[in-house]
Amino acid sequence: MSEYDYDLFVIGAGSGGVRAARLSAELGARVAIAEEYRIGGTCVIRGCVPKKLLVYGSSYGSEFRDARGFGWACDKLAFDWPTLIGNVRREVDRLNGVYTRTLEKAGVARFLTRAVLEDANTIRLADRDGTISARTILVATGSHPVIPDVPGREHLITSNECFLLEKLPASLVIIGAGYIGMEFASIFNGLGVKVTVLYRGDQVLRDFDMDLRDGLAEAMRNRGVDLRMDTEIASITKEGEGYRVHLKRGDSVAAGLVMAATGRIPNTQGLGLEKIGVALGPNGRVVVDEFSKSSVDNIYAVGDVTDRKNLTPVAIHDANAFAETLFNGTPTKVDYSVIPTAVFSQPEIGTVGLSEEKARELKGQGAIDIYKTSFRPLRSMISGRDEKTLMKLVVDMKTDKVLGVHMLGPDAAEIVQMAAIALRLGATKDDFDKTMPLHPSAAEELVTLRHKWEMPAPVAGSDAAA
Ligand code: FAD
After folding, report:
1. Where are the beta strands (DSSP E) in 323-442?
2. Residue 459: its pLDDT value, please?
3. Of 96, 172, 190, 322, which is most buried with the most CB atoms under 10 A?
4. Which residues line ligand 1 (CB under 6 A)?
5. Structural domains in the chain?
6. Is residue 456 predicted with pLDDT exceeding 50?
7. Nearest CA to ligand 1 atom 8
8. 180-220 pLDDT tens trace
9. Residue 115: what pLDDT?
10. Measuring CA to CA, which residue among 119, 118, 184 is closest to residue 145?
């Protein structure tokens, strides 16, 4: 008989928590998990999955317009938000059920309530008296949106509430131009909402490759999004049925809704971590070692709460490594060196490895070769869409290794996922060049980039094989 109720207690049933709980239970541990909102966590309930479904939903408008050149008559277009959001919610409910059944099948005990720590082995649940004990605790509580500290902040919604809207506003102001801001700007713009993005920085998507940032900003402006950079918010006031966003420079913008997309912070407030000696970083993240162990021996943390790279696949890899290390006798570290990522804006971004700016900073100004091309995809020749696809390779001049692959354009996420395998294997530019192109495709441009960017770019796209 064990001295503890469970071998492992997981706090938070999101991407990281569910994976860690299931695997650990399958490896023979007695596992319990607590979730205060809905099993599935951010990704499934109010992040990646419903967001991507809204991206699909919002892109049909421009697809219908493109279809006209191909002979389709799509003149009477009508869009119904309740249909889209209703179907998205049904899919989220289905996934919530799938995740719940997965835990059930693995024999994980589930507590649908908030959990906090009393001490390093004791958990208190919000919906009952008494406590539960566990040998190991895994903190997988994720993160939540930051609401900027300005007068009128109570009027702001965040990405969470976008999935709860019963009707679409006529206009929307988004504060912030990170990936979530850009994605929701594209979604709502695609659905016919007048979108204004306000951002205090000088260009969208801080830390991404500059060509991607410039290219996306230009394309989104051409699609009708009003992007205003170097713009700081003073306050938000109620005005009629909507709101007015007052800017520090004196003017203002009216909007039916105002959304904050100003970053996220780890969920560690009130969890009881500090009082038992778990070291937290300045933004409240749990500080962990390479095995996801905190400063307290039996307390671990995975996913967004550790603020390493806040993406679902990273939380899942953290969780796999955790279960392997603790319950399969195989100490396992996660390799964070190559992490592909996408921005599901319209057009889309896919990116892996170093940006040109970061590569020059790390390797030296003159140590980098850049190969890039910008072309109108074949389909646009008939649809008439005047939007360019951008592809770019960042190459180490000395070793010929490809350090970064960047793309802006249709299917960028799908293409860059595959390029990530090449980067992981240490592919050189020569390997890319020797790879047979798949024709006709946009992706073939990545293996036919012959000219360094200083030279005139070749005409690319449909006639790559000419
Ligand atoms: P979460 O999935 O957030 O799970 C944490 C869970 O813990 C939550 O369900 C929470 O309710 C629960 N919890 C918190 N405190 C307690 C407590 N005390 N007791 C009980 N339960 C608690 N990532 C991608 O890779 N691709 C994308 O396209 C993408 N799009 C995104 C879009 C949006 C709008 C957002 C917000 C995020 C997106 N992400 C995306 C990020 C991704 O969702 C997160 O990185 C991922 O969900 C992190 O998983 P996690 O397990 O760390 O935390």
Report:
1. 341-343, 349-353, 368-375, 389-396, 402-408
2. 53
3. 322
4. 11-17, 34-37, 41-43, 47-48, 51, 114-116, 140-142, 159, 180, 267, 271, 303-305, 310-313, 315
5. 6-144+265-327 (3.50.50.60), 153-261 (3.50.50.60), 347-447 (3.30.390.30)
6. no
7. 41
8. 999 999 999 999 999 999 999 999 999 999 999 999 999 99
9. 98
10. 184
